[in-house]
Write a structure and sequence with these properties.
The complex is a heterodimer of chains A (107) and B (114).
Chain A (H helix, E strand, L loop, with lengths): L3 E4 L2 E3 L6 E11 L4 E6 L6 E5 L3 E2 L7 E14 L9 E6 L6 E2 L3 E4 L1
Chain B lengths: L2 E5 L2 E3 L5 E8 L8 E6 L5 E7 L6 E3 L7 E6 L4 E6 L8 E7 L4 E2 L3 E5 L2
Parallel strand pairs in B: 2-11
Antiparallel strand pairs in B: 1-3, 3-8, 4-5, 4-9, 5-6, 7-8, 9-10, 9-11
The chains are: A mainly beta (107), B mainly beta (114).
Chain lengths: 107, 114
Amino acid sequence: EIVMTQSPATLSLSPGEGATLSCRASQSISSPYLSWYQQKPGQAPRLLIYGASTRATGIPARFSGSGSGTDFTLTISSLQPEDFAVYYCQQDYSLPLTFGGGTKVEI
Amino acid sequence: EVQLVESGGGLVQPGGSLRLSCASSGFTFTTSWMHWVRQAPGKGLVWVSRINTDGTITDYADSVKGRFTISRDNAKNTLYLEMKSLRAEDTAVYYCAKDGWGSWGQGTLVTVSS
């Protein structure tokens, strides 16, 4: 099983600041199989980034993804009030499909 | 517009059974792999199962293998998750999702408790 480890667990920032979220895989993943999600309380996850770096439909340009192999990063260039949420990475490179434990971005 | 609507959740006793449904619309269901993902209260996302387009290929997380069965009815555009021998640790919101992960349902809560 590929274990996805996200860090930090919590990121305390202010609106307008930038955020850098890390996701590390326990073994190498082909980039097309790495995705990032945003989840707000009481809502389903929302796809932000797929293929490690491609923004999903309707996702603002302040969200960007990068990385390869075992190390991936989600960057939010300037936090908006609606960006405070929990973020998950996910690999669907091999079974079982696995998610990271999440990073909470809080004010 | 893609819509996925889960139903069938509720309170069930340990050892009991439940069948979840996911009614789909707004896309070609018959050509889409589908997934179930769950989230225990206050916890992260956990993949549960997936099924291919015609139901001939199914995969499961080890934690549910042998107890849960994923299936689909392409004539009804509906995905199912049959859950048996339920345990307290199966308590979660269960989401269905379309492969590609851009579309998720709103989730249905399953509570396993006596």
